[in-house]
Structure formats: structure tokens, C-alpha cells
Design a protein that fits this description.
Structural class: alpha/beta
CATH class of the largest domain: Alpha Beta
Radius of gyration: 22 Å
CATH topology of the largest domain: Metallo-beta-lactamase, Chain A
Bound molecules: zinc ion
Shape: globular
CATH superfamily of the largest domain: Ribonuclease Z/Hydroxyacylglutathione hydrolase-like
CATH architecture of the largest domain: 4-Layer Sandwich
Strand content: 15-25%
């Protein structure tokens, strides 16, 4: 008899951790860090203590209190068994920290699976100094449509569309029927057919676990397409007389490629913070790192450059030719949206430097309408909305039961 429990992503966006158990075998889907501002005690200048990071996360509920998951030394002096029980496997949907930020703590004997692209991105993040806390994780890869048999489970990985390459959904076959998990998913990106095929593959499943990020923001129906974002960026780059500043998540490799092409067309070079340039170079992207020796050239010809900023590099605005002739293009980089405490800090810097702010970009997450379409296609017996501040806004189709997950390990039986 199989059951399912939720160790994150309950009433919050991010931090997804979905546990499926049967006959003492376990499949854990995602192991994300908690980024939500409301319950997260570690925000801004308050960080876990350097020599107690995992312990501080475990004691505040930010890491799941599960035995035989972590390296023994990481849970020493806690009443929690470390090391592998050889009956646990971890599957990661994509390389965003709110889905894999805790895998650096996982015991080395526990297999961690993901797509080949996820493995490449995780490796490049590690090698450019932007890796996971805890330690360097080792991922095993699963091809598109391929399955892993683990104990009584068969786990199949399928591609879905999100704002990072390699995003995946999983279908876990249990004795009580298949459980499908979308990870993060959307229909307005460059590959809607992947997300639709995933919903088809999940059709009639016993349970569907679906992300409901955009339900948090009401019932707005439309997100711009990635093509519209590209067109908007092209217009801005072409019409701005001075320097263009940019905030783009470098792991959104398809948008990076599109923006590089647009800048090339307009005779501009994108300059990246050093670690991000290194990350992109490791993935075969030709990216130029920013350093202060380029300042004279940027002042001479600001219209030939785009400077990507992170919160750490924001003070570079003091040295750059910014002001009313330049523009700050926010395209889903840092800070991570208006709920991020750094959002107001960014706006204060732009006001101080008299630099116009132009948000473009589009969500990595399905609109409420698209979420309902995906649930309707899958038509599961049970739907669990997670990764949302308003999961109750998901209205299930007839004959589907909606269960609202509870945090902290309440086990929902999957038996009919
Ligand atoms: Zn997410």
C-alpha cells in the first residue's frame, strides 16, 4: 500500500519535497530550499549558522526531518538517523534551488536522478562557485521517456516546459496506481507540447501533484510568450541611447541565447558578472565577463554594451554611465520578484541613479487557466496542488477529488 506526504511547497511557492512510500521503500521527488518570505526564518541578514547549516534548517522545518536521507556527519548530535537505508531514491525535476537546493546534504549512497541537462547545469553551477550548500552532489541521468525501477516503483521521467532547460515531470507507478508530479510547468513557453504530452502520459493517474504558483496571484489569465519577451527586449535594446542594464537568470539558457542574438544584431556586447560568465562558458555559451578595466570603453560607447547585474554587483551602478538615457531591464533575474526583500533595494538604487526601470519577462509557471487545462487533461482520481500560496483556488474537474496537502508528513493513503 502506497502513500504520499509533503515536506515542503505547502502553502508556499517553492521548497517542493514530495515523498511516496510503499513497503518501506521511498521515492523523494525534489528537495528544494525554502524561499518563501512568510514562514522562512532565514532571510536577509539572518542565515543559518555556518557550522550548523543543516541542523538549523532541520530544527526550523526548512529541511525534511526524514531518517536515512542525510550524510551521517551532517546530522550528528541530532536524534535523526543518517546514512542510506538502501531503500530511498531521489528524483529532481530541475536545477532551480527551490527544487534541488538541499541535495548537497544527501548521503552519497542515495541515488539522485535528473535529466542530462539538469546534471550539466548542476555541474556548471558547482564549477563556477554557485553550487549547492552542503557539498557537491552527484547526479545520475535518466533520458526522456526512460524509466528507473527502484524497489516496488517504476519512475518515468518526461520533459516539461519551464524557464530552465531539462525541466522534467515524473510518473511514479505504485501498487495503488500511478502518481504524476509536474515539477514546475507552463504552457506559454517555447515547448508547450512537452507539458501537454506530460499531462497525456498522466491521464487517468491515481494522483496528480501539480504546481499552482500563479494561483497565488488571483485569476489573471495570460502570461506573455517568450517570443514576446524577446521582441520587447529587442525594442528596448534598439531604442535606448545609452547603457542597457539587465537582470536575467543565467540558467534560463534559451532566453540567454535569444538575448545574446538580439544584442549581436544591435551591435551590443553583454557583460556578465564573473561567476555567471564562467557558468555560461562551461555550458558552451560564449559569454564575456565584466571587469573594471572595461569601464573607460563603456563610458565612451555605452550604446555598445549591456551590463548584467546581480544584487551583489548593484553598487557597480556608481561607476557605470547610468541615468535617464539608460534603462534597467528586469527579465526575471535578481531579485526574484516583488516579494523578494531585495526588490525595494533595487528600486531605491534605480531612483538614486535616476535610471528608468523596465520589467519585461514572463513567468516560468502556468497561468491559472493553463493549470486547470493540465488537470483536466490528466483527469486524475486525486489532485494535490502544491508550490502555491493559494492551492484552494484550484477547482478540480468532476470526479476528481482535490486534497490540500499538509506540511510535516501527514501521510495520504493512495489506496482506492
Ligand atoms: Zn519552483
Amino acid at each position: 500500500m502506497a502513500d504520499i506526504s509533503f515536506w515542503g511547497g505547502v502553502g508556499v511557492i517553492g521548497s517542493s519535497k514530495v515523498l511516496i512510500e510503499q513497503d518501506s521503500w521511498r521515492v523523494l521527488l525534489d528537495m528544494g530550499l525554502d524561499f518563501s518570505p512568510k514562514p522562512d526564518l532565514f532571510r536577509g541578514r539572518v542565515a543559518p549558522r555556518a557550522d550548523h547549516v543543516l541542523r538549523d534548517r532541520l530544527r526550523t522545518g526548512g529541511a525534511p526531518w526524514l531518517p536515512h536521507l542525510y550524510r551521517p556527519e551532517a546530522v550528528a548530535r541530532l536524534d535523526l538517523a543518517g546514512g542510506s537505508d538502501e531503500r530511498t531514491a531521489l528524483f529532481i525535476t530541475h536545477a532551480h534551488p527551490d527544487h534541488m537546493g538541499l541535495i548537497g546534504w544527501v548521503d552519497g549512497e542515495i541515488p539522485i536522478y535528473g535529466s542530462p541537462e539538469t546534471q550539466r547545469i548542476v555541474t556548471a553551477l558547482e564549477d563556477s562557485g554557485m553550487g549547492c550548500e552542503g557539498g557537491r552532489p552527484a547526479l545520475k541521468t535518466v533520458g526522456n521517456g526512460a524509466s528507473v525501477t527502484f524497489g516496488p516503483f517504476r519512475v518515468t521521467r518526461l520533459p516539461v516546459d519551464h524557464d530552465i532547460p531539462g525541466a522534467s515531470g515524473y510518473v511514479v507507478e505504485t501498487d495503488d496506481g500511478p502518481v504524476a508530479y509536474t515539477g514546475d510547468i507552463r504552457l506559454h513557453g517555447r515547448h508547450p507540447e512537452w507539458s501537454l504530452a506530460f499531462a497525456e502520459a498522466a491521464r487517468g493517474c491515481r494522483a496528480l501533484v501539480i504546481e499552482g504558483t500563479t494561483l497565488s496571484f488571483g485569476f489573471q489569465t495570460r502570461e506573455p510568450s517568450e517570443r514576446e519577451v524577446d521582441e520587447c527586449f529587442s525594442d528596448i535594446v534598439g531604442s535606448t541611447p545609452g547603457l542597457v542594464l539587465l537582470a536575467l537568470n543565467p540558467t534560463n539558457l534559451e532566453r540567454v541565447a535569444a538575448f545574446l542574438m538580439i544584442c549581436h544584431t544591435h551591435g551590443r556586447t553583454i557583460l556578465w558578472p564573473r561567476a555567471q560568465a564562467q557558468f555560461l562558458q562551461l555550458l558552451g555559451v560564449s559569454a564575456t565577463a565584466f571587469d573594471s578595466s572595461q569601464l573607460a570603453a563603456i563610458h565612451r560607447e555605452p550604446h555598445r554594451y549591456v551590463v548584467q547585474l546581480t544584487m551583489r554587483s548593484i553598487p557597480d551602478l556608481l561607476d557605470l554611465p547610468v541615468g535617464p538615457a539608460s534603462v534597467f531591464v528586469y527579465a526575471n533575474g535578481e531579485p526574484f520578484g516583488p516579494d523578494d526583500p531585495d526588490w525595494q533595494v533595487l528600486l531605491a538604487w534605480l531612483r538614486y541613479t535616476d535610471t528608468p526601470f523596465h520589467p519585461i519577462g514572463t513567468s516560468g509557471h502556468a497561468s491559472p487557466r493553463a493549470i486547470h487545462r493540465l488537470v483536466g487533461l490528466a483527469h486524475p482520481d486525486i489532485v494535490f496542488p502544491i508550490h502555491s500560496e493559494a492551492p484552494a483556488r484550484l477547482i478540480p474537474p468532476s470526479e476528481t477529488v482535490r486534497w490540500l496537502p499538509e506540511r510535516g508528513g501527514r501521510r495520504f493513503p493512495l489506496r482506492k
